[in-house]
Amino acid sequence: MSGPLSGIRILEVGVMLAGPYATMLLADLGAEVIKIEPPGGEISRQVGPSYFASLNRNKSSIQLDLRSPEGQARLGELVAESHALLVNMKPSVIRRLGLTYDALSRFNPRIVCVALTGFGLDGGDEPAFDYVIQAATGVAAMTGDPSGPPMLPGYSSADNSTGLTAALGLLAQIVSGRGGQVEVSLLDVMLSQLNYRASAYLNDGLVPQRYAHGAHSYYVPAQLFPTANGYLALFVTHDGFWKSFAVEAGLQGFTTMEERVARREEVLAVVTEALAADTAAGWERRLRPLGVPAAAVRTLPEALAEHPEMVVQAGDFRLVGSPIRVAGYEPSYRPAPELED
């Protein structure tokens, strides 16, 4: 069975992570993705072979100097035969290289042009790297221990999230049957992902605060807990989960979420004491069959070892495969393209 996006051609003028991740997901689903690289190659090739491979499998590549008349002419030819173009660069560069719908619609009025930027096409050229956006949108401020400094996640959450959103916007406009300009910015995506936190502030005046061990602001207990060996993520979101957990842990009282939230510190104290009686792995084995959401904290190597079905081979590189499973379709994984003249 061919991929669900078979027959769709997408051009990518992408750098580093967000743009290339978006188009790689589409390529995994069967789209033909042509990566347009400047002479000498896209900058992430300099980071390292495994980095480039992790974001550019299943694509082909051509080198074009888009600053030259020849490069622009070839771009127009490609646009005439493509469904979409995705670019992530500074707004001034996107416009200067003619990578907008206004500039390219003369070649193909149905072309979908996706601009992935830091602050929007009209938002200026200020640097917008992942960590900068996390700092600017409040993510860093609400992450970490309350008595410590702001913290950043251990991976590029803003870039990855924006790549996913850009892929969605691209497909939505293709499905509409109309060409046009689509904009996705890192700033907008991260503010959007703060949904219930932002709503609580905008409607109820609740300023987000940090809780120890990454505790949830609404649910109790829902956080990391130390155990006899390792940390356990326990996420009790309703009274049924609490009842099952309490019976297994030998706890009494606190039967409603309202009471648990009101007496947060008392609940956390008794849960912490109870969980110290076993290891994180032990609690996971005991709670999972009861339907209680719980998991021992693992390292990435441990997680990959437990889920070998997510590890694929693309040329010389072992990578994490597509997270999208389509019945009857099994992606093939071709290596990231070599840089050719």
TrEMBL record:
Its EC number is 2.8.3.-. It comes from [Mycobacterium] zoologicum. Signal peptide: none annotated. The lineage of its organism: Bacteria, Bacillati, Actinomycetota, Actinomycetes, Mycobacteriales. It is an enzyme of class 2 (transferase). GO terms for molecular function: transferase activity. The keyword Transferase applies. It holds the Pfam family CoA_transf_3. InterPro entries: CoA-transferase_III (IPR050509), CoA-Trfase_fam_III (IPR003673), CoA-Trfase_III_dom3_sf (IPR044855), CoA-Trfase_III_dom_1_sf (IPR023606). It comes from the Bacteria. This is CoA transferase. Keywords: Transferase.
